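WARN no homologs supplied; continuing
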Amino acid sequence: MQNAREGHCYTFPVFTYILRRIVQSFVVLLVVMLVTFTLPYFQVHGILAPAYSVLQTHANPKTVALWGAQNGMNHPYFVRFWTYVTQTFFHFNLGHSYKQNLSVWGLISLYVPRTIWLALSSLVFTIIIAIPLGIIQASRRNTFIDYAATGTAFVLYAMPSFLLCMLMLDAFGFHWPHLPTSPPSGVSPWLMFSDPVAFILPVACLTMLSVAAISRFMRGTVLEVMVQDYIRTAKAKGCSNRRTLFRHAFRNALGPIVIILGLSIPGLFSGALIIESIFNYGGIGIQTVYAATTTDVPTILGITLLVAILTLLGNLLADVALGIVNPRIRIEGTSR
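OK structure emitted
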């Protein structure tokens, strides 16, 4: 009975913590929406800049004013922001793309799944490669394996992503072994499963950029844990090096890595932008570049809002996963 009561008392603070984090994320999201909604006011021609891009040679003060009235640009600032917030949260309406004559939500739902599969595949391979690599480096510190992996990680970490993509494209796209230089065209997100060979190069480039950083963090975290008192106690009790490493050190070192993986989601999307451009992969990255160069403000706002949501979601999931990986971590507000 006492254990059940203690478990209930522990579950309630966890639920309160998650609820508080959701509320905090919602407030941050409102701030992001406010900033991104305000930025177009500071461009040339202000919020009427899209009118000049749409009307082109027909743009004059009269036609621009008429276009602005037809698209609600003549309303006060706070009225427009309130309309934007209510349309976003209650109707999932992110506006209309003036250049592509599509709803922003329709445009995002068309291309985002392709980028998500690309980033998710890279994240899975990063976890599979980087975490064991960091453990091996820590367990064999100051050996040839450690020096070789560290040197390779430094090179990849310092190398610009576009340069890595160009080198991989030249090495494996035009020389032996020959791999497809571009994934198949089309907007279906399932093309990755129907033709996986065509995605080897873009997924490999995005994975290599992430592995370099995560493996270094994993190595440093394991080394930091290995000098703790409870590790020395476990060794003094006769635990083997392998058992000490995987039973005690690995579990405690995994916490910071979970946080870093959750916060790496925006980095995967920003890296995917460059990779999509180089490998001609029709994802949200190419759409972002096109929207920025054509002053498609609603599309830019919608994509920015999507990345902000994914960032907040990754941060929230990382906090929750940290409590699952290491239950001894006390959540603020838990009774002592």
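Strands lie at 96-97, 102-103.
OK
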